[in-house]
Queue: 2 jobs
Job 1
Amino acid sequence: MFQASGIGFYAVVALAMCWALAIVLYRVSTPGSVARKLSLLLVVEGITLISTGYIDLFITPAGREHDWYPAWIQAEVIIHTFGDCAMLALYPPFLAAALQTKLTRPFANIQIQIAIYVASGVLFFLFFLTPLWLGAVLLYVMLALVFNFALIASIHAWLVANELTRARARSFAFAFGFRDLCWGIVYTVAIYWIYLGLYDVVDPDATGFIYIVYASGTLFAVPLIAYGILRTHLFDIDLRIQWTIKQSTLAAAVVAIVFLISEGADRLLSQELGNLAGLLAAAIVVFFLAPLQRFAERVASVAMPNTKNTPEYAAFRKMRVYEEALAEALQEGGISEKERALLVRLRDTLGITESDADAIETELQSPGSPILV
């Protein structure tokens, strides 16, 4: 009934990375933050990806003859279409929160967001109530437009970024740009296939090149997205990610030692000796726990250099957050009363003194400041 599938496994790995990062980012973020929005987007992206037909690759031809299989396919179609519509609804507001440029700022407007949500819901029902050449084409055209717009917006944000935000914009452009390019191509090809009469919403034989492109968009982009954009939006996000890397490395080392010793003895010697070896492995782990912890800390330090959980580092990150927010406001040609009130609230939340805030603003307004170049 079940069989192995290389491409199916490829997609499952992409799904696992997507959802694992979503969980990590949810745990290390605060409500309403860009990280929290991205975690939700990653959950929806994983649902949309895996419901395309990759799971069906693990089902044998004989298994597809069972009575339950048509209902399974229909459920996949509903889930995949829901994921498409959810991506359409969630992605533009996320771009507005993450990039904060002239191109994306309209999507921060609550009325526009509500219009997008309503349009996405209408497209969901049109998909099932109209022929593919109408409902599906409308949905896929909108998705292709959104992903191509996101690609252009990320490149534009990179080109116009000042010195303070250029690294973040570059990471965003590479990470999101790769995923946007891959998914934009896939939905454009789907429109073409509909008019050729070759398209199925869920393809039980999702082994073509276009399906590899679809999974690759998530597989290669998600780690870059998580690190590149979120590290500069929350002043302590990198500390929390470093802690996660350290704990994951320690857990992996412990599991590896126990598995190698116990399983190796079980296979090479006997079951009884294998059980004894398992106890021996546990003792070794306890004995070498301190060195393992130091090893995990070194791995985390290499992955996240210059990141120390000290009062000085936390103060530095807070100043950077305020500096970036102030630079964004100054780029618009002056700070309005509303923006000034928001900056004061941010300053008080971060615990930055008024004198330090004034010094940052004076420096940014000086003739040599990168935002004035």
Job 2
Amino acid sequence: MKQKIRAVMLLLASLPFLAGTGCSTYSQEEKESFGRTQVHTLKFGEINRSYYLHVPAKMDISRSIPLLLAFHGGGGTPAYIERESKFSLISDREGFLVAYPEGIRKSWNDGRKINAIPAQKENVDDINFIVAMIDEISKSYKVDEKRIFATGISNGGMFSYSMGIRLPEKFAAIAPVAGGIPEPLKDSFNPEHPVSAIIINGTDDPLVPYTGGEISIFRSKRGRILGAEESTRKFAENDRCTPTPVIVDIADKDPNDGCKVKKYSYGKGKDGTEVVLYRIEGGGHTWPDGRQYLPEMLIGKLCHDINASEIIWEFFKNHPKKTEGP
């Protein structure tokens, strides 16, 4: 009993780090190669919203530039998801903008309609906040409207699903990690524009079930989601991809991590779209090749066979939007 109590206390005390939003640090060499990340404030409605914006060290201002949005998990912050994902380092290497928006009271209104989540209880208009944020960034930088992408983990992953479902005219591709399509969005699922998707889920995630259903954290009900495979099929069908996926076993680079990876690819979608699922067999509520921010007994195993951030950017890079918005 004492061990269980300690585990609960540890989890509650570590909520800001949940969903892969831990405070890992950069090396001095990494810091020296950085562009700049600055905090911005945007007046939206009656409140001030904020976001971090990373501008790469090298950027060709004569060309339009891609924009990647990375959403923190429940209880997280922009600083944590920046450090955990290291998208800013990839940005400096590849030359794209990264925005790390901040949710109301560290949460997103992803569509689950659950009072236990502040942004959902207050029915925060996060969708239009994101539209306003993109518009503001576009006033300062020549954002490529065909290369706007969204990713996130847990609550942030579910919110990135919402971007693909509710703002398909804005986003070329999404990359939810450790999330699922919120069940209330199932019946209204009908994106008017094709959106590519790369989806990453662990089969042994103790917080967000791989097969879908109720999310429950120590008896606290957190809403219902579709499973990883059903979420993948929904986007593949909407994009008119091939009905049968090509399945590939990814090389087991780390035999000691307790995980193996299968890649399910649905290709030949409308306007060149593709939907891919990385099934992390044995994986937990983690960002692959990130860090074990809490013990395995609480969040499950961390997979090192793939680097989530690298494969997400590679996918985004190869899947621009090929049609104009409305």
